[in-house]
C-alpha cells in the first residue's frame, strides 16, 4: 500500500524523534562511559587520569553491590505483584454496576497525581512515624506496640508507598480492558452455568493479558529508577539501597564520579537485561 | 507582600537619593532551619541598607548539600552565597573554590568571633566562611522528672551516670523514655553523635597511618554502650530519629534526656512549641574520665563560591547577616532567645543575653570543643564529629547505615563494626590513602 | 456493559467500592485536613478528624515564606511546554510508524522505550556539565527540553497505539479522492486523533509535573518548580506536619483538579494499545 514516496516521507517524519532520542541517549552515555574509565574525584582536583577497569571491579566487588541488585528486584517485583493483583480486583469491582461510580473512580485515581516526593513525605511522617504517625495511633488503639515501619519493615514500607502511587495507573488500564470485553460471551458462559471463578479464569483473565503486559512494561520502566521515595524515607538504610541509590551515593555522597559512572553502566546493562525479558513477553503479546 | 513592595519602593527612592548605582540581585542557597528562615524574613532590612535584592533557594539539608556540592564541584555558578558547614569549608577552601573573606570592614570586628568558630572556618589563618550560627552539643534534661526520681544532674556528668539516670526515668507505660539519641543514618546525623561518643570512650576514626579503627575495643565499647542504653531507655523506632524527630519528641515531653545540638535549647524552652518549656535543665555532654567529652563543634556559615560575578554584593550580604547589628536586629524583632547563637563573644558578654537560661552552657560547651585535638589518642585529621577529608561524607553515611541497622536490631554491634571497618578501608583505598 | 443486577447486589458493590475508594484516597484527604490544623493539633493523640479549630494560618505562613505563584508558574510552563514540544515531535513519528510500518518499526519503538531506562543519577554529572556549557542551568528552556526528551518515548508510544486504531481504509479512501500527505494528516487524521492526542498530553503534563529529579537538580531560583518548593518544607526544625501538609496540598492541588476534571479523557487514552 505504501508508495516509495510515502516511505521516504515517513522516514523524514520519524527523523526528529529518532535523532533527538539518539542524542539524548548517546551523549550522556558516551560521557558516562568515558568517566567510568577515569579516576574522577571532583573534591580531589577533578579528573586524575586513566584507571582502566578499576572502577568496574571496585563497584562490583563492594559488599553493597549484590544486596543493591536484590533490593532493586524485590521492590520492582513487589510493586508489580501488588499493583497487578489489586489492579485486577479493583478493575473487576469498579466494572460492577453501582451508585456513584464516577466519584469512586475519581477517588481511586487520585494518588496517580501526587508527586513522589510529596507522597513519600506524607507517608513517612504522617502515617509511618512510630510515635506521631496515624498507624502508631491505630496500633495503640488496639493495644499493640507501634511498628517502626521504615526500619523494621523497610522494604515492605517502600513497596507499599510506591504501590499506592501506581495502583491507579494499573487499575485504569485494566478497567478499560475489562470494559471492552464482549458481554455476550460472558452472558453465554453465565447461562451455561459456569461459576464466577471459571468465568474469570477462562474468559476475563485471558482477555486482560494484553493489558497486564502493558502495565508491567510501563511500570517496570518507571520503577527501575525510583529514587525520590527512597531518598525521602530511608536514604538507603535498612536494606533499601537499590542500584540507583547506590550510584547516587557513589556519585554525590562520596563524590566519586568515576566509580558512580561505572555503576551507571551496570545499571544500563541491568535495565537492558530486564528490557530483553520484557520484550520477549511483550513481543508475543503485543504484536502491534 | 504589600509591605515588602512598599519597602522596595522606599528602597528604590533611597537609592536614587543616595545615587548607589550597582544594585544587584544575589542568589543564596540555604538550609530550612529556623534561624535561616528568620534571616529570610529580615531580607528587607538588607535590601533597604544596600539596595541589593536577594533570591532565596531554601532547601532541606540533604538536598541542599547535594545541590551546592554538585554546583561548586562543576563550577556551575548557580549561587552567589552558599550555606555550608565546618566540614565543607576547609576542604573547599583548599581547592580554591571559595573567596577568602580577608577584607571585611573594621566594624565587622572579626576578632569578636569565637576563636573555635573562626579556627574551624579558616585555612592557614584566612577566614573562608562567616559563621551564621554555631553550636556544640550538650545534655538537655527534664528537671521535673529528675526531681521526681530523686536524682540530681551534675554540671559535668559521666556516661555511667547518664545511663543510670536514663534507666531510672524511663516509664514506657506513660511514654516517657529516659534518653533520646540520634539513630537516623547519615554522617551529619547519627555519626555526628556516635563519633563524639566514641571520642569520649577513647576511640578514633583513624590512626596516624590512616588505618580505620573500627576493629579496636574502644569502638566496640562505645557502640555496645549506646545500643544497650537505647534498648533499655530509648524511644521506639529510634533508628529513624534524627535531630528533628528527637526535638519533636522532647517538645512533647517524651524524653527524659536528650544529647544534641546546643541550638535546640531555644526550641525546647520556647513555650509556643514546647510543652515542657519551664522544666528544662542543661549540662555538659558526658565523658568517661578519659579527658574528652562527647560534644561536637559545628557552624552553619555563609561562603562565596569563587567565580561569582557578584562578589561585592555577596560580601555585603555576609557582612550584614553575620554582623553584631544583625544580632541586635533579631533581638529587637523576635527577642534575645531567638538570636543566632554561638558565633560572637560580645553576644555572651551582653547582659540581656546572659539571662537566657542556656547561654552559659552553650558557651562552655563550645569552649570545651577542640577540633584540632578531638580524640584521646593522636589522629592525623581535624574535626570532632567528622573527619575533614572529602571521602568522609560518603564513608560516614554508609557506616551510619550499619549502626542504624544495628540499633534497629537487624545486626549485632560486632557485625556493624566489621562492615564499617571493611567499607571504610575500601573507600580509603579507592581514594588513594 | 450494563447488566441487570439485583438491588442488593448493587448495594453491596456500592458499599465495597466506596470503602476501597475512600481507603485509597485517605492519605490525600488526611493531608488536606491536616493542612487546616495548628501544629499541635496535627500531632494530637488521639488524631483529630473533623472537630478542630480550622485555620488558614499554615497557608499564610507558607505563602509568606515562599512565593508560591512563582513556583506554580514555573511548574505550569515546564509541564505544558515540554508536553507541547513533545507532541509536536511525536505526532509525525507516530503517524509514520502507524501508517507506513516497516520491519523495523517495532524495534525502533522498543528502543525508544529503552532510553527511558537510563538511570538519571548515573548521568547527572554529564548532563550538569553539558548544561553549564550551554548556559541552560536554572532555565525553563533547559527543563522543557530535558522533560520532553524523558517523556518522548511514552508520547510516541501512546500516539502510535492510538493511531493504529484508526482504520486504514479511511486513509486510502482519502488518497483515492486525491488528498495529498498534508491534507491527509490535516483533514482526515487529525480530527480522528484529537481525543488520543488530548489524553496523551494530559498524561504527560502529569508526568512532567511530578518529575522530581531533574527539576530539582538543574534549577536554583529562577526556574524552580513546585518540586523545589516542597524541598524547603520537608523536615525543618520543630513541629512541621501542618505546614508540610499545607505546602503539599498547594503542590498537588492544581494537577489533582486538572486530573479530576479531565479523567474521562485521560482514561480513554490510557490504554497504550492494551485494548483491541
TrEMBL record, chain A:
Domain of life: Bacteria
Domain ABC transmembrane type-1: 69-278
Transmembrane portions of the chain: 12-37, 69-94, 106-123, 155-178, 211-232, 263-282
Alphabetical keyword list: Cell membrane, Membrane, Transmembrane, Transmembrane helix, Transport
Family designation: Belongs to the binding-protein-dependent transport system permease family.
PANTHER family: ABC TRANSPORTER PERMEASE PROTEIN
Record protein name field: Sorbitol/mannitol transport system permease protein
Phylogenetic classification of the source organism: Bacteria, Pseudomonadati, Pseudomonadota, Alphaproteobacteria, Rhodobacterales
Automatic annotation (TrEMBL), chain B:
Cellular compartments annotated: Periplasm
N-terminal signal peptide: 1-23
NAD among keywords: no
Keywords: Signal
Domain of life: Bacteria
Xref: Gene3D superfamilies: Periplasmic binding protein-like II
Family: Belongs to the bacterial solute-binding protein 1 family.
Record's protein name: Sorbitol/mannitol transport system substrate-binding protein
Organism: Rhodovulum iodosum
UniProtKB/TrEMBL annotation, chain C:
Residue ranges annotated for the ABC transmembrane type-1 domain, each copy included: 72-262
Key words of the record: Cell membrane, Membrane, Transmembrane, Transmembrane helix, Transport
Residues in the signal sequence: none
Gene3D superfamilies per the UniProt record, alphabetical: MetI-like
Annotated membrane topology: Multi-pass membrane protein
Annotated compartments: Cell membrane
Keyword Membrane: yes
Family annotation (InterPro entries): BP-dep_ABC_trans_perm, MetI-like, MetI-like_sf
Top-level taxon: Bacteria
Coiled coil: none
Transmembrane segments: 12-33, 71-96, 108-131, 143-163, 184-209, 240-261
One Pfam family here: BPD_transp_1
Family to which this protein belongs: Belongs to the binding-protein-dependent transport system permease family.
Protein name in UniProt: Sorbitol/mannitol transport system permease protein
Species, as recorded: Rhodovulum iodosum
